[in-house]
């Protein structure tokens, strides 16, 4: 059976990961989105089980103890984690799965799953990143300051990824990711059976 891709999209907060992933999922119907758990409070319009599984810090810590996560990280003061079970199940069934996670989480997944497709999304500039995250209007002053302060160091971690994609415009960035995925689906290691002819 051909193994599904583990697609990891990462980048500094406000780069446009959520926006680009949404566009990608609309264009590629075969990709499942990995819903993370988090201890942060829901934003207006967010739904339990759609954007995130919202958990208390205590519940989250119990999930860590139970080994429920592929990776988890403390991001800007809250826990975020990728549930392990659905990923293994979907990939084994040949289904591609998309993780939208922070840089610490992505670096941990690189260790555990080196066959993943690691994509770093870049903003056109630090100024534009600031404009985008402030324009989104979802953060408290403290959360905004933390995210902006972390941005430059986070972007430097992009060097460790296989792919770097510029998010200058949503459509163009999504097309670049689709080009990467088209090539990744032809990777020899994804389907060893094809050589047994
Ligand atoms: P992230 O998930 O990386 O934190 P979001 O997807 O929430 O980022 O995007 C942050 C803000 O930037 C949103 O208001 C979004 O509409 C906007 N945005 C995303 N991509 C672009 C783009 N290519 N050009 C202009 N604005 C963008
Ligand atoms: P937000 O609070 O803006 O939804 O997300 C904050 C950051 O946490 C983003 O960079 C987002 O990609 C990241 N994130 C979301 N889910 C996970 C996860 O499961 N693991 C890790 N490590 N980071 C995550």
UniProtKB/TrEMBL annotation:
Keywords carried by this UniProt record: ATP-binding, Cytoplasm, Kinase, Nucleotide-binding, Transferase
Binding locations of ATP: 11-18
Similarity comment: family membership: Belongs to the guanylate kinase family.
Species in which this protein is naturally found: Centipeda periodontii DSM 2778
PANTHER family: GUANYLATE KINASE, GUANYLATE KINASE-RELATED
Domain Guanylate kinase-like span(s) in chain numbering: 4-182
A GO MF label: GMP kinase activity
Reactions catalysed: GMP + ATP = GDP + ADP
Name of protein: Guanylate kinase
Main location: cytoplasm
Record-linked Gene3D superfamilies: Guanylate Kinase phosphate binding domain, P-loop containing nucleotide triphosphate hydrolases
Its job: Essential for recycling GMP and indirectly, cGMP.
EC number: 2.7.4.8
Annotated GO CC locations: cytosol
Entry-linked Pfam families: Guanylate_kin
Subcellular location(s) per record: Cytoplasm
Database matches in InterPro entries: GK/Ca_channel_bsu, Guanylate_kin-like_dom, Guanylate_kinase, Guanylate_kinase_CS, P-loop_NTPase
Lineage: Bacteria, Bacillati, Bacillota, Negativicutes, Selenomonadales
